[in-house]
Write a structure and sequence with these properties.
The chain is mainly α. The protein has a single domain, classed as DNA polymerase, domain 1, CATH 1.10.150. The chain contains five helices and no strands. Helix 1 crosses helix 3 and helix 2 crosses helix 5.
Length: 90
């Protein structure tokens, strides 16, 4: 499902912009989520994603590669991003 028909709010646009890391390991997960799921996610999930993209790249890399996020909400969302990416590769 594409979100092309949904017009993002200013706050959503800021989060989408922050999600563009320029680090391919993070963009690998963030780009498909932003493109296909972020705008239709629950407000709670959008808020968690907004907090997630505010984190430092080294922390994010560690959390994605080694599964040790500091917040349970981050762990759940990172797991979801990984599942969504794996599903998009099939």
């Amino acid at each position: 499902m594409s979100n092309n028909s949904i017009e993002p709010t200013l706050e959503q646009r800021k989060v989408i912009y922050r999600a563009r890391r320029g680090l391919k390991e993070l963009d690998y997960y963030f780009d498909p989520y932003v493109r296909d799921h972020y705008l239709t996610a629950s407000p709670e999930e959008q808020a968690t994603f907004a907090k997630l993209v505010e984190q430092e790249d080294p922390d994010l890399l560690d959390w994605f590669l080694h599964n040790h996020p500091t917040e349970p909400d981050f762990a759940d969302l990172i797991a979801k991003l990984k599942v969504l990416k794996a599903a998009s590769n099939t």
